[in-house]
Amino acid sequence: MFKKVLTLICAISALISSAAVTVQLIELKPGDEAAKKAYFALPRNCRLWGTNGYKPSDKQYNAILVMRNDKVNFAFHLRGNMVDGAPRGVQIGMISPTHFNWYAGGFVDIKSGKKLLNSGKFSVKETKSGDAGIAILDYSEGAFNGTITLALADNDDKVGFVFTPADKTLRFSVQLTAYPGEYGNAKLRKRVVYTNTGKGENPKKLTPQDFYCVFGDEYYDIAQKRGRGCCAFLFNPKEIIPGSTIRCGYACTAYLYFNKGSNASFVFWDFAGKSLAQALDYMKNIQLQ
């Protein structure tokens, strides 16, 4: 089983397909009419300032990174501040397939001790469309630096993610945040986490046998005609170390700890429009995907 999981993860950095994947970066700047036109050509769920609003600022960095094929449309909101002409503090939010599930305001936070990855400069180092879709996000000139590579294959429904630290001598942690289904009413929400070993306690300590997690909500569930779906991620259990934990409250959050010398490799699914049961059935057969 683990061999199949590792094969899927390793394929992130070497995606090969026979048809096109489109990767589009739109940096939203005041007075940039081409960017404005491209922005309003995106699906409405990618809008940042309401349906008809367009409010870029010289003081803020806003960009939308789109990775799409014939099966799925992933869109990421890259959001931060402009400091001395360069983006800093840039967060990565997932706004499509839906603003819910993986957090639209920033679904991944990476740090080494108190040193934040996004404290330095940010740039989109490379994008590639065609045989495979690739985007490389570069964090530099901070206390903790590295690159994030996003990858999408043709006719696929999941996005690959690899964080590579610039300094391989440092331990680091990755926090993943999701609001499965809806932000919802505190009295009605029933957040749950499942791994390949079954329904988890809250908090759930990850074991060496765990290699994927599904975040869902038993009230805000498509099966109950509520919510927007659920989400999941797959990880390499050989990369994380003891103490890695999942907690579900208002948000479902994974706290994952990595030893020095490691990368952080993930595969992300946004099961927009699917019930928790459908997502669990899908993930149970992940070795067949």
Biggest β-sheet strands, sense, barrel? 9 strands, antiparallel
Gyration radius over CA: 18 Å
Structural class: mainly beta
**Beta-strand percentage?**
35-45%
Number of strands: 20
| Percent helix range | under 10%
Taken in chain order, the helices and strands follow as: HEHEEEEEEEEEEEEEEEEEEEH
Give the quaternary arrangement of the chains.
Answer: single chain
Mean pLDDT: 93
Return residue spans where pLDDT drops below 50 for at least 5 consecutive residues: 12-18
Overall form: globular
User: How do the strands of the widest beta sheet line up side by side?
Assistant: 8-9-10-11-20-17-16-13-14
**Count of individual helical segments:** 3
Structure described in brief:
This protein is mainly beta and 289 residues long. It is built from 3 helices and 20 strands.
